[in-house]
Amino acid sequence: MLKVLTLNTLPFRRKLTFSFLAITIMAVLVTGGLSYTLSADILERKSKTLTQDAVNKTAQIVDEKLNKLMVVMMTFMISEPFKEMLRSVSAGEYDDYYRHLSNMDNVFSQARIAEPLIHSIYVSTPRGDFYPMSVNRNHTVTFKDTPMYDRILKAGHNIWVEGHEDELFTGRQRVISLVLEPITDTTLYSVNDVYVVVNIRESGLRRLIGPDAVDGVTRLLVSGEGRPVTQETSPLIRQAVTSGMLRPIVQTAGDRGQVTEKLHGEPYFVNHASLSLNDWHIVSLQSKDHVLQDLIYIKWMIFIIAAGSLAAAALVSSGLIRYLLIPLGRLQTVMKRVESNDLSARFEVKGGDELAQIGMRFNRMLEQIVSLIDEVKEAETTKRATEIKALSAQMDPHFLYNTLNTIYWKLKLNKAEESQHMVVSLSRLFQLGLNKGQEFTTLTNEILHVKQYLDLQKYCYEALFHYEIYVSDPGLEELSVPRILLQPLVENSILHGFRDRESGGFIRIAIEQDEAARRCRITVSDNGAGVDEAAARAMLRQTTEKGYAIGNLISRLQLYYGEGASRIEIDSRLGEGMTVRIEIPLEGAYANGRS
């Protein structure tokens, strides 16, 4: 009579063997699947990173080339022949046209030699057009007949025009155009309806970007509307442009980054980096299937490893189970004690085999955990000071760029005294802001710091605003306050409140003492654009980019004084300016050892 065996009737050792085999198979399959997934993920990330680096480098090269072009054109527009021509145009003189045309030909040649990417330069004025004599002019078309004229009138500032056939000169070369308004000294003369058109060789710019497809990566230059800047022949690029896939990427994905998009059902990696002079982006397209095509080998290796592991597990499982069962039980007992928060438990090591080594490492791990718990407790005590330093170290790089740029142009315009004042103010600003590494400074130094900042901004934005600082009690000037307390508030007024203004702005800083409440009240008000109530509440919740400086300040005050010890209020309505009130204790900050 046959005896029927079931799982329940199998010997315990056989159960362990089957369990071991099942676990081995599952582990191999899970490991293989995870290995494949992780390999694919790593390969994707590496490919995206390498492609992004290449795109960033290409964007840097194109930026440098276009920046050099801008420098060449600025030099062109401050040359004496160009300025003499503008003076004649401003005075309405017609007789000197050919003399100016001849004088400017040398300047045209110098610009084209300085930047070989320039195909031609054309200057449109109400008194006639100026252009290099070496280039054949198409006299049937003027600048006002081209779409570029309507675009710059609508834009109101310098524009970049995507690739097109040149209508101003014969040959109908493919060019990319930069349309500039001239730099003039408005105190001596003024000109209207004068434009400088710089035609850049499209083929030269295309060579900077690189070939259409290298190792499965297709690169192109697109405008802010998602259209190619240069003429493209790749079917993949035409499909991407036709589908409208590129436009939301360059408009909403930031200055640079990488996303995955589907094109006709196939996933593509899209990397992009923006240029600094305009809203153009370098974009690369790479098929995900092309990136992962080498993983077929890994699939077969996973299958072979799984089959080999199963065979090996079947051979050694019974003996290994007998050998490991008793010591594993002891280790399990120790683990259960640790699971119950008994960190004093230790595995009793006998022998020197691998399991003993595991036990020893387990003991060391427990010792490290105890040590790490102590380190975490100690680290918490310094976390607050570290966060304060990180928050207070933020400085807008655009402010420094604008300041240095203003100093440069004032020097170019021979305004040496103003430039000296700006350099001194900038030096003093950083000296007071750094404060020898101390997080707290006196109110006197904080007022000096914000004065330097406001004076620099007044040089950068001439006639935009004026300011007033009022301190009710001279005794407050020695009050110890966090450094860089006032500058974020006036920065918010200038950058956001006066954004649509050209003049008439006013900022008032009032510092008063509330003796009864033992608090210092700081009020910063302006007559700028203001915000609605919802936006003001969002600033206080630190959930809006527009109120970033205020959100940073709120975080710092909470870290310095603790929750509830300091208060900040925003009173604003659209079109009626903004008032920010801060109240801090006259004493009681505990940052950096204060109490």
From TrEMBL:
Stretches of the chain forming a coiled coil according to its record: 362-389
Q: Which domain of life is it from?
A: Bacteria
> Matching InterPro entries, A to Z?
Bact_2-comp_sensor_kinase (IPR050640), HAMP_dom (IPR003660), HATPase_C_sf (IPR036890), HATPase_dom (IPR003594), Sig_transdc_His_kin_internal (IPR010559)
The record's SMART domains line, in alphabetical order, gives: HAMP
Give the subcellular location: Cell membrane
EC?
Answer: 2.7.13.3
The UniProt GO MF terms for this protein read: protein histidine kinase activity
| TM stretches of this protein | 20-38, 300-325
Q: Report if keyword Phosphoprotein is assigned.
A: yes
**Enzyme class of the recorded protein, top EC level:** transferase
What residue stretches are annotated with the HAMP domain?
A: 322-374
Keywords on this record?
ATP-binding, Cell membrane, Coiled coil, Kinase, Membrane, Nucleotide-binding, Phosphoprotein, Transferase, Transmembrane, Transmembrane helix, Two-component regulatory system
Q: In what way does this protein cross or attach to the membrane?
A: Multi-pass membrane protein
Cite a single Pfam family from the UniProt record.
HAMP
> Signal peptide location in the record?
none
Protein name, as recorded: Sensor histidine kinase
Which organism does this sequence originate in?
A: Paenibacillus xanthanilyticus
